[in-house]
Design brief:
InterPro entries: Pirin, Pirin_C_dom, Pirin_N_dom, RmlC-like_jellyroll, RmlC_Cupin_sf. The chain is mostly beta strands. It is built from one helix and 26 strands. It is 4% helix and 47% strand.
Length: 336
């Protein structure tokens, strides 16, 4: 039997879209990018993964498909996994994107078809560039702590880099910027003069910010970037808007600074931003492409054991691809 023919058992969220009936998402283009500052508060859509796990999907969202090159954001936890196996995401494929593994609590063991084996810890960067094709698994180690809390994020690769060789990077030490009651870790790109060692393919920024109780700060931004803030825990006031855990505030472009305040104790947020992504693309399941044919070919390659390689060391079968929807996946949109 083809190992990809059996449905997976219950899992916790990893770097995979485990929705068994994923909907195609048409992303990119600049028609939805605000050239002026805005304050659009988005709530996470609950998505059932496996039998018992629910994540909050912030991107793509109704009316908001991307923020810069950030094209997919799930936030999960804190989940009590003390008596549970925790994250158990079987081997699955990716193409045309980068995955950013970001934890606030817990441990995740990454394995991929390149032979990489790496345990990612809280506030360490696990950055996988799929390029033309890669597969990987993620799981909590057998001996793990009580809590699992984090976010999974994808970055779309621009056309000139989307067929690049796949790679995996792990960076245990990341640059930090401190001041005005804010402690910022730069995950990807640059912020306030500090630059992440992670390889980026578009002008982008991702940062994890801890706001001390009573913090009242102004964060420097680039006016030609569009931005959003994801609340991980606690609540913060962002440019006058209260943002609570599990929600995302889209901010548009045109800002040179961002007022931040923590009124109810310390808060933890993520800043996501980048140059608006002009290319139009199609995202379905774990693939980012430019046409229906690309997506269909990638699905067939995964199901027949071609191109994406094998992940060794995971005790279980790979995840089969869902059936393609009964419609043609077609990128659309217009320039702003």
């Amino acid at each position: 039997m083809n190992p990809r023919s059996a449905l997976p058992g219950p899992t916790l969220a990893g770097m995979s879209n485990l929705d068994l009936k994923p909907q195609p998402s048409v992303c990119g283009g600049r028609e939805d990018v605000s050239a002026e500052p805005v304050r659009q508060l988005l709530t996470g859509r609950p998505v059932q993964l496996g039998e018992s796990t629910v994540v909050r999907r912030l991107l793509p969202n109704l009316g908001r498909r991307m923020v810069g090159a950030w094209c997919f954001v799930d936030q999960y936890g804190p989940d009590d996994i003390e008596t549970e196996p925790g994250m158990q995401v079987a081997p699955h494929p990716h193409m045309g994107l980068q995955t950013v593994s970001w934890l606030h609590d817990g441990l995740v063991e990454h394995r991929d078809s390149l032979g990489s084996v790496q345990t990612v810890r809280p506030r360490e960067l696990g950055l996988m560039t799929s390029g033309r094709a890669i597969s990987h698994s993620e799981q909590s180690p057998r001996a793990h702590g009580k809590w699992l809390h984090g976010a999974q994020l994808w970055v779309a690769l621009p056309d000139e880099h989307r067929f690049t060789d796949p790679t995996f990077e792990h960076h245990a030490e990341l640059p930090r910027v401190k001041g005005q009651g804010v402690d910022a870790t730069v995950i990807l790109g640059s912020l306030d003069g500090a630059t992440s060692p992670g390889r980026a393919f578009t002008p982008i920024v991702g940062a994890d910010l801890t706001l001390a109780a009573g913090a009242d700060a102004r964060l420097p931004l680039q006016p030609d970037f569009e931005y959003a803030v994801l609340a991980m825990s606690g609540a913060a006031t962002v440019d006058g808007v209260r943002v609570e855990a599990g929600s995302l505030l889209y901010l548009g472009c045109g800002r040179r600074e961002l007022p931040l305040r923590a009124d109810d104790g310390h808060a933890e947020i993520m800043l996501l931003g980048g140059e608006p992504f002009a290319e139009q693309l199609v995202m379905w399941w774990n693939f980012v492409g430019r046409s229906h044919e690309e997506i269909a070919e990638a699905r067939e390659a995964w199901m027949t054991g071609d191109r994406f390689g094998e992940v060794h060391g995971f005790d279980g079968a790979p995840i089969p691809a869902p059936e393609l929807p009964g419609l043609r996946l077609k990128p659309r949109g217009r320039e702003r």
